[in-house]
Request: fold
Amino acid sequence: MSIHVTPTRLADVKSLRDCIDVVARDAHFLASPEAPPEEALVSDLQSCAEKGSIHLVAKDAQRVVGWAQIERGKGTSVAHRGDLGMGVLPDYRGRGIARQLLEQCISIANGLGIHRVELEARSDNRRALELYRSMGFAVEAIVKGAMKIDGVYHDAFRMCLIIVPPSTRTHDAATRGTRLAC
Reply:
């Protein structure tokens, strides 16, 4: 098996949609139980390119078997932040593909000036949580009732990775000794 990680192209959209759909239906860890229509994916990819966001796919030959994206924050004061989303087909899990996608996404993000990567993962998504923690992500908050699947609420962890430390001149509540509560 030779898996190649590359930037997503418009020619990948059909296979990407198929991959997202399988992952979405597999364990309901994504925000939607099915993939968006191909037209919406095309629009997302075009928007991604315009905003300086990142979208990668892992391919086995021409088949998309995984993806990762970091969507840059909207607005100049949050453009250094990006929201991560990713998934790998069930038959390809446990082979290091998610780690490879994540490592490349983070490397590209750093080069594009995205220095804070954020994500939300369901608290029962153990494989994903292990990967994120091993890559240096830390839990910042517990989001109670973050997802509702078949009438059941599931908590999620809000996690973050700082790629490049912020400047030493900060103006946040933590540096003033103020405690923040979620």
